């Protein structure tokens, strides 16, 4: 079984929709795995969401176009869970969830309690934003 077959099989058998580049390092050299990932991105089987973060795709039942298999919210949650980074909802999201306001947050903003993160995640034209932790 060659590197491409190993990577494709591994991605197909994963439960989540997010694949980290580091998850695939064990299947071959860096250049071999990068070549396979780039070919999968080019063929529409994966979408690059950020540096080293890829999202599985599916075909839209409405348009027939290839779209991400997960929303930005799901991608952010899965990514930070895999990276073992604890994140919290933004102040605006917490206020809405607790009933303090009826204003819906317009974008996905998260807080990171003990570290600064600058990882840019973009899915379907939406970009994850970060909020400073105000303790």
TrEMBL record:
The keyword Hydrolase applies. Keywords: Hydrolase. InterPro entries: DUF6088. This is S-adenosylhomocysteine hydrolase. One of its GO terms (molecular function) is hydrolase activity. Pfam families: DUF6088 (PF19570). It comes from the Bacteria. It comes from Massilia mucilaginosa.
């Amino acid at each position: 079984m060659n590197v491409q077959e190993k990577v494709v099989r591994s991605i197909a058998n994963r439960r989540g929709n997010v694949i980290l580049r580091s998850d695939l390092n064990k299947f071959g050299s860096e250049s071999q795995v990068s070549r396979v990932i780039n070919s999968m991105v080019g063929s529409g089987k994966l979408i690059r969401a950020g540096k080293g973060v890829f999202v599985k795709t599916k075909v839209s039942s409405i348009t027939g176009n290839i779209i991400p298999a997960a929303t930005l919210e799901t991608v952010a949650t899965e990514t930070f869970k895999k990276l073992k980074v604890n994140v919290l909802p933004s102040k605006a999201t917490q206020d809405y969830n607790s009933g303090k306001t009826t204003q819906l947050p317009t974008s996905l903003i998260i807080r990171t309690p003990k570290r600064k993160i600058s990882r840019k995640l973009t899915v379907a034209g939406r970009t994850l934003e970060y909020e400073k932790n105000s303790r």
